[in-house]
Design brief:
Rossmann fold; elongated; 2 domains; 10-stranded mixed beta sheet; alpha/beta; 14 strands; 219 residues; 5 helices
Length: 219
């Protein structure tokens, strides 16, 4: 399975242990300061993308002399650096894309990065946004399996852009059956799996699933 991990330049303290995602046939792309984060973890940088306005002149010299595939863009452009990196990742036709370093800091950046998850509905490539506290995914109508992850014990289901119709949760502490969830509802925040895996299904709308933890391991 081919995986592309994109590391953006969000706050370093919100990054999980990137080495935990180091697997065979995984490609790493750095976005702006995310390139520095990858270098610090000694992860091979397949692609570097951005305007690189958040790195020092010394770091930029290193970048230009070290990274084989480097795409430098002007700071004034019609797409964010992370969106451009996602364009590159999609062109590689991976089986899935993981996005790190995309939370914390500026709220406009956070919201823009969350909406980038919608790209998976155009491409068919699953996208997951990950930080030290959370994993976030979007789903279209259908039936899905959720496996228990000890590092993220809480699961929340949130209507993303409209109401969600006939949401059913099975194998959860707080089950539901064909429940209408209005846009803006907090009904399905902070649930838990009571089995090793559960299922969720719904008939219309877009559903955001967030896996979370309260505390974080020391890195």
């Amino acid at each position: 399975m081919k995986t592309i991990c994109i590391v953006a330049g969000g706050p370093k303290n919100l990054l999980p242990d990137l080495n935990a995602y180091r697997e065979e046939n995984t490609l790493w792309a750095g976005v702006d300061r995310g390139v520095v984060y990858l270098a610090e973890k000694d992860l091979e940088i397949e692609q570097a993308i951005g305007d690189f306005d958040s790195i020092s002149s010394q770091e930029r010299e290193w970048l230009e002399s070290t990274v084989k595939d480097l795409s430098i863009y002007p700071s004034e452009k019609d797409k964010t650096d992370t969106d451009l990196a996602l364009d590159w990742a999609i062109d590689q036709k991976p089986d899935k894309i993981l996005l790190f370093g995309a939370t914390g800091g500026r709220l406009d950046h956070l919201y823009a990065n969350i909406f980038l998850l919608m790209r998976q509905f155009q491409t068919g490539i699953p996208l997951t946004l990950i930080d030290i506290h959370n994993e976030m995914e979007l789903f279209q109508p259908g039936s899905y399996t959720a496996e228990k992850k000890e590092q993220f014990p809480y699961l929340s289901f949130i209507p993303f852009s409209s109401d969600v119709a006939k949401l059913t949760l099975e194998g959860f502490k707080y089950p539901l059956h064909n429940r209408h969830i209005p846009f803006g509802s907090t009904l399905c925040v902070s649930n838990e799996l009571i089995l090793s895996k559960g299922t969720f299904s719904f008939e219309s709308g877009i559903l955001m699933m967030i896996r979370s933890r309260d505390d974080s391991p020391l890195l």
